[in-house]
């Protein structure tokens, strides 16, 4: 069943459903007509019994009706005395009693309906009504009956109509269902053919969307939106790979050149030591770039591993400032920490939070000037961790893309990979916070991240 085309499966299900509906409808109609015919026959027998009873009470003869009260071949009547013997009867049934003793006794007590598979002189199934009648001082039992021939013929005609019309209706309904399923699936087939032609090199193509505002059109719109996201994602990945390749090419080329120069001729111990130290610095830079790229790749997949714990913001600021104190002294720049009097505690991965702050401080030392200040404050139920410097600040056209990968506010050959603030943004997002950058009112740059308080 699962191997059949959807169109055929839908048609089969529709045909099966229609067959069940037609069977139920036919059975209900047949049962209702049968019941109505039985009720009509009973009512006919009651009416005829009233007329014949009036005739009997006037000492009339059943044989004298001549079809006015009794239809020849279809109805009959019989009059029995208290002993169960036939007193009078129509010519159809003759002098044979139609009631056995038990039913005769019931008829003496009141009207009773009786079904017979066969009646003498009629040889057909019949339905009879027996009831007590008073003629003068005598108490008699009158029996009127009618064959079921008309009822049987009507039901047979109705059954034949169902047997002929039912399959025809089922065939027509199935053909209509097959055509309707084909019309409904035609837009999907068009989308399938177009999707089969779309490849990584033609992601700008889109699936045809029908004009109707139904489930199929919404499916097409959703798939087109998915293609847009895939196209944008691939474009970002290609740009990311190209930028990463460019960033890795420079330290690799420097490392290769330094090693080749060291091997080109005999070197003194000091020269070899200097070459190895330079190669180690380039290797360290490559390692940092690889770690940053790995973190960004995990962020793209939503799998940045976090080990949350209560973290004192002041302690983190002091730790990061301590790491950069030697650099501040060597560059003769002031480095300070300013915190609130009330301790601020956030639920965060301490290692990643320190990495984000370190990138912010490194950015201030590399691209800023003057004093570098690490500051924390509470605002709107969140903790803000700021890094400020006294330099010229960010270029106005750079603020909107400060946290993009490989973006630089200075000339391309400036120090740095352009990944520092992108890592800050990634770590902030992983903590369900955000990162921002702005130029301070008094001059210089202000970069901060905002995290929810624990």
Topology:
Layout: H1 6-57, E1 75-80, E2 86-89, H2 101-109, E3 112-116, E4 126-135, E5 138-147, H3 149-197, H4 215-264, H5 269-300, E6 309-312, H6 313-330, E7 335-338, E8 345-348, H7 350-367, E9 372-379, E10 382-389, H8 420-430, E11 434-439, E12 445-452
Parallel strand pairs: 7-9
Antiparallel strand pairs: 1-2, 1-5, 3-4, 4-5, 6-8, 9-10, 10-12, 11-12
Helix pairs in contact: 1-3, 4-5, 5-8, 6-7, 7-8
Radius of gyration: 51 Å
CATH class of the largest domain: Alpha Beta
CATH superfamily of the largest domain: PAS domain
The CATH topology annotation of the largest domain reads as Beta-Lactamase
Q: Characteristics of this structure?
A:
alpha+beta; Beta-Lactamase; Helix Hairpins; Heat Shock Protein 90; 3 domains; 8 helices; 17% strand; rod-shaped
